[in-house]
Each structure stands twice: as C-alpha cells, then as structure tokens.
Amino acid sequence: MHRFLRYGLVACSFMGGIFHHELLADTLQINEWSTTRDGSLRDEDGEATDWIELWNYGPEDISLERYHLSDDLEAPDRWTFPQLTLKAGAYLVVMASGKDRRDPSQDLHTNFQLNQRSEAILLSRPGQTGLFVVSVIDGYPDQRDGYSYGRITNEATETFGFFRSPSPGEANPLSYLEGFVADTRFSVDRGFYREAFVCTVTTQTPGRPLSTPLTAPYLAPETVLPFKLQVPKAPRNCSWRLEPRQR
User: Fold this and answer.
1) pLDDT band per the 50, 70, 90 thresholds, residue 119
2) In 3D, which of 60, 80, 56 has the Cα closest to residue 135?
3) Per-residue b or e along 48-83, where b marks 16 or more CB atoms closer than 10 Å to that residue's CB
C-alpha cells in the first residue's frame, strides 16, 4: 500500500528533534517524477536520469534556500537546495542522478537516485519546532519504463496516475493511467491446433467486467493463421472458443 501525505498532525522522531507537519502548508508540492531513466529527460552530460518536478501552485514566489529533498523518511534533509527562487505558478525539475550539483545557474542534481520500486520522496524545510514537511510521497507504485508518475490534475490534489507522455517542467498531461494489469495467464500454450478448444485467461488484478465480448476469427479447415485478441478492459477470468468454419 502507498500513502500520499500533505499536511496534518503527524509527528515522528528525527535526530533527537521533531519531524512534523504544520497545519498551514506551503504552496509547493512534488508534482511529477520519473524513475526509469528512459530518455524522457537528459542532463547536461547527455545522460538519461531520474528526475523530480516541483510546482509552486500559489500566487507568491518561494525561496528554496534551506529546503531539502530526500528519498528517505529517516533522513529528510539528505539534499539541500541552493539559494534559488521558484516563481509563482512555475515548475522546477531536479535531476535525481546522485551527482550532487547545486549551481543554481545549471541543472540541479540530488545526491541520491530514485528506486523504480516503491520508496519515499520528501520535500521539507526548517519549521518552528523541527523539520516542516512541505510535500511527501510515502511510497509509490512500481514504475514502468516510458511512463512518468504524478498528480493527475494541475491542482493541489492527492490523486495520482501514470503518464504516457512525461512533461518535466510543464503542466501534467490530462490523459493518464490509474495503473497496470498484472501479467495474464493462458490455460492453453501457444501452438498450432486443428481441433476446437477453450482457452481461459486469468490475471491477479481485480478488474471490471469486459465492456464488449471477447471474439476470435473463424478459421477454415486445414488453415493455420495467427490471430490477435484485443481485451478492452482488464479481465479477472474470461474464456473464448475457437471453432473451425465448415464450408
């Protein structure tokens, strides 16, 4: 299970102090990220890298001096921003490359990389009695090559999805996927068949019933042709039957 937290009365110990959420949050959030290094974004060295996008959705500019990024809830101040201002409504992309570069006139690089499997991403700053959590992703679904992940609307929401077209430094796409179906299993192995058979397809992902029935083309006797089965929605358990057509 993954949780997406923003602010509230939450506290935990941190290096002898308090790592907490304040009731009033900054208008700054982790908006989109990519862990697949699929070339959707390359750094100044020409290398594909993980990246994290921040968005200032408020009406005021925000100084990022003393703000921190981390992938570890036990070390929320793992990487610290240089003196830099993020304009109202603007986006900022930070390379999560592990190269640790903080020149504000160049691409910014954290000293950590992201994991394709679930972990945390945390944005914090000094608060009144400890570190103030500005935005935190406390675990995310396993990531997929070719997709980024982030908030599904360009608002301060807590609903997330996968994007086919990553948009670092820009508003998130309106088109998204909620998730992916687990691998399917066929009850009949691939091969050539001359007799009618029933094949059952199953998946571990609970899903909605099919919106349209499964169909397969008829094959004339003594004819061997490949066919493609298209499933419009994720099935839990479905089957179809191939019948040779008699002439």
Assistant:
1) confident
2) 56
3) ebbbbbbbbbbeeebebeebbbbbebeebbbbbbee
